[in-house]
């Protein structure tokens, strides 16, 4: 079906491909994208069928999930498994979405993961314990017991108890971001192994060459950093990837392309990325957020706000009142079931816009890549005919 709607020719001009966007050429974009979607589905189906390990994992999980829709004595055993499957898919999937688009990924950390950690921290302060339920905070579901203190007595709340309560979803999200780095690596490695031009790496080199001549100081600094990173990865291999992945690195997209181009083995690249992103960077981010949103640090921030804003604004008391009202929802279930306030509605609207922008960006990016690949293939075929 994708090939029926896909344009028959590619677009060689970079400027013309830049105009391949939904609001200018919707039918062409949808055509190119549908062809990419069909190819991708066929590729994954073939790869899955040919892999005994994948089949051994997918068939039981699929069977378990399907069986949950049928009544019977098995439900009591199946439902917990399905619940944790949905939990893992949600948080890992958000991580994949965060890093899979080269520069256009949905920043699901800021939209979902970090707000979850903050909510856990505030709930722990309000309840005086960490016995409240948080696992159901997924797939936009709000259960009556979610983040509710319950009848548990207050206890000596320790910092690491709060951090551990928020850690599992964050680690799964971090592992998902590592999985999202595989496509650029795989494309670059495939081009190297096939001994064909690596368009991703070539484009990166072209951009670095152009930006190094820029009069803009920031652009030159960015280019210098990219050059240093490529050399660092080439020299240090596993350790280089691990160190690049272990902090919020805006240039990590380049790592996959470079490691594929240099022929780094898959498990060496992926294990370094997984350890760095999932088990080093994310736990540090959780520790920072729990610290910043703990009561002592919030009071310091509110005191600073009071100093730098006019007294007439009464900003500290207003923020404190809003925060206490929010915390009260964790203790009082009747407040938690009330309709969303204006801030919640605005946040919900922002989420819809952000997700919509991400989807449109991905469709356009895949369409532009398809147009470039078709043009390149046509050029190679015309050379052969000569």
Structure explained in plain terms:
The protein is an all-alpha fold and 386 residues long. Helix content is 74%, strand content 0%. The protein has 16 helices and no strands. It has helices at residues 2-5, 14-18, 26-50, 52-67, 75-99, 108-127, 159-179, 182-193, 199-212, 217-245, 253-261, 266-292, 295-308, 315-331, 333-336, 342-385. The longest helix is centred in the C-terminal third of the chain and has 44 residues, at 342-385. The chain is globular and about 80 Å long. The mean pLDDT is 79.
Number of strands: 0
Q: Which structural class is indicated by helix and strand composition?
A: mainly alpha
Largest sheet: none
> What's the rounded overall pLDDT mean?
79
Beta-strand portion reads: under 5%
Poorly predicted tracts of residues:
none
Give the key terms.
mainly alpha
How are the elements arranged and paired?
Blueprint: H1 2-5, H2 14-18, H3 26-50, H4 52-67, H5 75-99, H6 108-127, H7 159-179, H8 182-193, H9 199-212, H10 217-245, H11 253-261, H12 266-292, H13 295-308, H14 315-331, H15 333-336, H16 342-385
Helix pairs in contact: 3-16, 4-5, 5-6, 5-7, 6-7, 6-14, 7-12, 8-11, 9-10, 10-11, 10-12, 13-14
Q: Quick recap of the structure?
A:
The chain has 386 residues and is mainly α. The protein has helices at residues 2-5, 14-18, 26-50, 52-67, 75-99, 108-127, 159-179, 182-193, 199-212, 217-245, 253-261, 266-292, 295-308, 315-331, 333-336, 342-385.
């Amino acid at each position: 079906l994708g090939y029926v709607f896909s344009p028959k020719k590619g677009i060689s001009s970079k400027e013309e491909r830049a105009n391949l966007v939904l609001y200018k050429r919707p039918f062409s974009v949808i055509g190119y994208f549908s062809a990419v979607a069909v190819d991708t589905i066929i590729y994954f189906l073939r790869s899955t069928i040919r892999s005994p390990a994948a089949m051994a994992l997918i068939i039981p999980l699929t069977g378990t999930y399907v069986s949950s829709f049928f009544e019977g004595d098995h439900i009591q055993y199946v439902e917990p498994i399905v619940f944790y499957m949905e939990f893992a898919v949600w948080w890992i999937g958000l991580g994949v979405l965060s890093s899979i688009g080269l520069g256009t990924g949905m920043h699901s950390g800021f939209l979902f993961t970090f707000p979850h950690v903050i909510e856990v921290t505030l709930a722990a302060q309000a309840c005086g314990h960490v016995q409240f339920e948080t696992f159901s905070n997924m797939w936009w579901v709000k259960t009556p017991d979610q983040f509710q203190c319950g009848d548990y007595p207050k206890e000596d709340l320790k910092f690491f108890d709060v951090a551990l309560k928020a850690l599992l979803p964050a680690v799964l999200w971090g592992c998902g971001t590592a999985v999202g780095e595989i496509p650029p690596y795989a494309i670059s490695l495939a081009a190297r192994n096939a001994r064909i031009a690596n368009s991703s790496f070539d484009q990166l080199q072209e951009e670095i060459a152009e930006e190094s001549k820029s009069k803009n100081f920031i652009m030159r600094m960015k280019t210098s950093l990219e050059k240093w990173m490529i050399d660092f990865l080439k020299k240090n291999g596993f350790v280089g990837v691990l160190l690049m992945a272990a902090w919020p690195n805006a240039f990590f997209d380049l790592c996959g392309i470079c490691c594929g181009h240099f022929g780094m083995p898959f498990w060496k690249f992926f294990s370094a990325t997984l350890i760095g992103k999932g088990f080093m960077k994310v736990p540090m981010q959780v520790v920072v957020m729990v610290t910043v949103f703990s009561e002592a640090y919030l009071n310091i921030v509110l005191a600073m706000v009071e100093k730098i804003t006019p007294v007439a604004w009464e900003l500290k008391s207003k923020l404190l009142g809003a925060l206490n009202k929010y915390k009260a929802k964790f203790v009082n279930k009747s407040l938690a079931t009330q309709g969303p306030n204006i801030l919640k509605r605005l946040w919900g609207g922002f989420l819809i816009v952000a997700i919509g922008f991400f989807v449109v960006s991905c469709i356009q990016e895949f369409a532009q890549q398809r147009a470039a690949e078709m043009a390149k293939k046509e050029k190679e075929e015309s050379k052969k005919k000569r």
